[in-house]
Write a structure and sequence with these properties.
- This protein is α+β, with helices and mostly antiparallel strands.
- The protein has five domains: 18-282, Glycoside hydrolase 38, N terminal domain (7-stranded beta/alpha barrel); 290-368, Up-down Bundle (Substrate Binding Domain Of Dnak, Chain:A, Domain 2); 411-490, Immunoglobulin-like (Sandwich); 495-743, Golgi alpha-mannosidase II, domain 4 (Beta-galactosidase, Chain A, domain 5); 765-841.
- α11 (295-322) runs parallel beside α14 and α12 (328-341) packs antiparallel against α14 (353-383).
- The chain is globular.
- The protein starts with a helix and ends in a 5-residue tail after the last strand.
- Belongs to the glycosyl hydrolase 38 family.
- Keywords: Glycosidase, Hydrolase, Metal-binding.
- It holds the Pfam family Glyco_hydro_38N.
Length: 841
């Protein structure tokens, strides 16, 4: 900053630029320490910031993270009262509006909604304000649907630091960021870091940012304060700033906040705002190894997100129909555990080993709350279904030690579907049965499959295809002795299984006997081979030169070898499903893949069990798709994005699709890869790879490695994926719905005979548009009503009726591409359904 020039410009009013000094203390509650240490550090940092306010009347402090405020409120109420006073004065500025600063790629869309719902409402209740500025200064990348999520959470602005200029070049630190639905927020990328180190001055940062202001023609923010382990602005920092203001002018350098910065930018308005660049993209890349590090935490996150949403749906239904108490506070408690574990250093897999024991406990807490709530609701519903049959007088267990069946009348088996569309899928009954019928006594094909138990001769279960209404249930009747399936007319086999192949009328899968790779995946509907080479190839990648984050690494292509030496066996062969088990090896590691095909589907589902014993190595599964001019589409939270097919590691959610032109037919075809707990992928030309495991060192930032280092992902992990070959686009193939079905299988309750007011088949929702999905159905936080959240999945406008029969409600709604809509449905049927935001305000 040129002293004379800046003073002259300010005096003449020709350059009305201000450097905003942002006092902050980046607080990692977990990283190279556990949460208990983070808890203590947050209290000490808050105390230090309050002390600075007494010593420096001009000092303003900025802080995010509702969880931190909750900790102080609970453990240091006197300090919390002082803090509230400073917020009221405007000297302590609340930003962020989320529970913590999460990883901004890996949580689901609904998780981001819950961060805002619980945090913004907490800030409003405790302080009378809500955050205006989204604030994730240390997160490792930011998915492209965040502008819509921010806008619907009451935040018009966004502050971040990563990716930095060397990772993603942009012409201005200040820009408009726009998501696919058209939502736009004003965003600022922090230059020169969000912290200062102890004993470091801030003068050099002030001088450098003075030059940036004049180069870019906009106000800039200069962040100062000791961070990561907390600490915040020091006395030395504030004395330096006083000296700088004396030197360059009180107006030119102001102790400020992100709120004040954006307010000043917007006050200039008009032509100034119009000149700012517009970014319509993800903000990537930084630390691409964090998309896959520590598989267990990532799998637990996906499972907890899905289970909580499912539990809320059934609890809402049981509450409305049967008066089962709905406990908002318990669900919030569970979501708080999940949200805390989404902190970027926990979910990113780059914390110390001990932190993951804590994360395991916290996820377990959330998963148990969800499981208990879901079970209570489903059993309340199933117990209220009329299942009494003629001739039954009372319950007695004379016939079987595990089932209440009498007189060969069957036992009700209630199957629940939490999805907002009808689902047909194999369901496994944990008993050996001889017959299954639906509620109209129509016999169903069944198949004996191996159970998980080995209890004498009782080691088999029963498989059948269930077809269950949307967000509803259906009663099937299961028979221990009555062979109902014999009443099904026998036809030509619809499913063929050989020692190396699976085939039905849609698809044929061939496995290469000595390697265990897919040799051929033939789509009989289009007459083309889906793969251009061997598929499901387990490729081992060298990552010895990576730290845990994989800083500076954009792709992982240094191949060391491949799993091989395969053993293939037929595990299931029957009229409903076929299954081939492929077991292969590499070094000390064993990979078991169960390839499954059922009679009515072209999709291949794969259950995987991996015993990973490799260090400094990464495992990927490779699928070369037989298309030209490939396009790669990734699911991101509440949306999708197309990315270059350049081999770079990318973050994704439940699915990734490669589509293009078939060289054989000239038609548009593609292959979607679905998963139930992985988040890292890459596409090089038309080859799709999913990252499965990383043998990285815990919290290794290119440290001094020795024989005592401990490695993550060692041992056994299990997950599932699916292959969906299709003609046309991924939208035509219903990929979004299929991915949800893989991640959230149907649930069941084995019932008995009883009277009840509920029917044996029930549909809970009807959505006319096939590309609108309902993700959340819950009791409202405050209002007398229910919340239904939907979003458009295919990136194109949608319109149609939405009906919730149990509420007696039906309305029409129009969605823009990738638009999220939240509906408040009042208890009082005379009151109109209203669209609200993610905060339910």
């Amino acid at each position: 900053m040129d002293n004379g020039q800046r003073a002259s410009d300010n005096a003449e009013g020709s350059a009305d630029l201000v450097l905003h000094m942002i006092g902050n203390a980046h607080l990692d509650p977990v990283w190279l320490w556990r949460w208990q240490e983070g808890y203590a550090e947050i209290k000490a940092t808050f105390r230090s910031a309050l002390d600075r306010m007494k010593e420096f009347p001009e000092f303003v402090f900025t802080c995010a993270g509702a969880a931190y405020y909750r900790w102080v409120e609970e453990n240091a109420p006197e300090m919390f009262a002082e803090l509230r006073q400073r917020v009221a004065e405007g000297r302590w500025v609340i930003v962020g509006g989320w529970w913590i600063q999460p990883d901004c790629n890996l949580p689901s869309g609904e998780s981001f909604a819950r961060h805002a719902l619980y945090s913004q409402r907490y800030f409003r209740e405790r302080f009378g304000v809500m955050a205006k500025v989204g604030y994730n200064v240390d997160s490792f990348g930011h998915h492209g649907m965040l502008p819509q999520l921010l806008k619907q959470s009451g935040m018009e602005y966004y502050v971040f630091m990563r990716p930095e200029q060397h990772e993603k070049a942009m012409e201005s630190n200040l820009f408009w960021w726009e998501s696919k639905d058209g939502s736009r927020v004003l965003a600022y990328r922090i230059p020169l870091g969000y912290t200062t180190r102890p004993n470091d001055g801030v003068t050099e940062k002030i001088e450098a940012l003075g030059k940036t202001m004049e180069e870019q023609g906009t106000d800039q923010m200069c962040f100062y304060g000791v961070g990561n382990h907390g600490g915040g602005p020091t006395i030395a920092n504030l004395l330096d700033i006083r000296a700088a203001r004396e030197k360059w002018g009180q107006e030119a350098i102001q102790l400020s906040s992100p709120n004040a910065y954006f307010e000043r930018v917007m006050q200039k308005g008009g032509e100034h705002a119009l000149r700012l660049p517009v970014v319509q993209d993800d903000l990537q890349h930084h630390a691409s190894g964090c998309y896959s590090a520590h598989s267990e935490t990532k799998a637990s996150n996906r499972e907890a997100e899905h289970r909580l949403l499912t539990a809320e749906k059934w609890s809402t239904m049981a509450h409305h129909m049967l008066k089962l108490p709905y406990r908002n506070e318990r669900f919030q408690e569970a979501w708080e555990s999940v949200m805390f574990n989404q902190f970027h250093d926990i979910m990113g897999g780059c914390s110390i080993k001990e932190a993951y024991q804590d994360a395991r406990e916290s996820y377990g807490h959330a998963l148990y709350i969800a499981a208990a709530s879901m079970n209570a609701a489903m059993q309340k519903i199933s117990w209220s279904i009329g299942t009494m049959r003629p001739g039954i007088v009372s319950l007695t267990r004379d016939k079987d030690r595990t089932l209440w069946e009498q007189n060969d009348l069957g036992v009700p088996f209630v199957v629940f579907n939490p999805h907002s569309w009808e689902v047909t899928t194999p369901v496994q009954i944990p008993q050996q049965m001889k017959g299954v019928t639906d509620e109209a006594e129509v016999p169903q094909q069944i198949q004996r499959v191996r159970a998980s138990r080995t209890n004498g001769g009782d080691k088999y279960d029963t498989l059948f295809l269930a077809k269950v209404p949307a967000m509803g249930y259906r009663v099937y009747w299961i028979y221990r002795e009555q062979a109902k399936f014999e009443e099904v007319r026998e036809a030509a086999p619809e499913l063929s299984v050989t020692p190396t192949s699976l085939e039905n009328r849609f698809i044929r899968l061939d496995i290469e006997s000595h390697t265990g790779y897919i040799k051929r995946l033939a789509d009989k509907r289009t007459g083309v081979d889906v793969l251009s080479g061997k598929g499901a190839v387990p490729v081992v990648i060298d990552e010895y030169d990576c730290d845990t984050w994989a800083h500076g690494k954009w792709s992982f292509r240094d191949e060391l070898g491949r799993f091989a030496d395969a053993k293939i066996s037929v595990v299931e062969e029957g009229p409903v499903r076929g299954c081939l088990r492929v077991t292969s090896r590499y070094g000390g590691s064993v990979l078991r893949q169960d390839f499954m095909l059922h009679k009515d589907s072209a999709d291949i589902q794969v259950k995987v069990k991996l015993d990973w014993q490799e260090r400094h190595k990464m495992l990927k599964l490779s699928f070369p798709v037989h298309v030209e001019q490939p396009t790669a589409t990734y699911e991101i939270p509440y949306g999708t994005i197309e990315r270059p097919v350049n081999g770079e590691e990318e973050a994704g959610q439940q699915w990734l699709d490669i589509s293009g032109t078939s060289p054989a037919s000239g038609c548009k075809i593609g292959l979607a890869l679905l998963n139930n707990g992985k988040y890292a992928f890459d596409v090089k030309d038309s080859e799709l790879r999913m990252t499965v495991a990383r043998g990285a060192i815990f919290a290794d930032h290119y440290g001094q490695r020795d024989e005592l280092c401990e490695f993550m992902d060692q041992g056994v992990q299990e997950f599932a994926y699916a292959l969906v070959p299709h003609e046309g686009s991924w939208q035509d193939a219903g990929v979004v719905r299929k991915a949800y079905e893989l991640g959230v299988p149907l649930s069941y309750v084995i019932e008995t005979y009883h009277e009840g007011n509920l029917p044996q088949r029930y549909c809970g929702i009807r959505i006319e548009s096939e590309h609108v999905v309902a993700t959340a159905f819950k009791k409202a936080e405050e209002a007398d009503g229910y919340i239904l959240r939907c979003y458009e999945t295919d990136g194109r406008p949608a319109a149609g009726a939405i009906e919730v029969p149990m509420l007696g409600r039906k309305w029409t709604a129009a969605f823009g591409p990738c638009e999220i809509k939240t509906f408040l449905i009042p208890y009082d049927p005379k009151l109109d359904i209203a669209e609200t935001n993610l905060l339910e305000l």
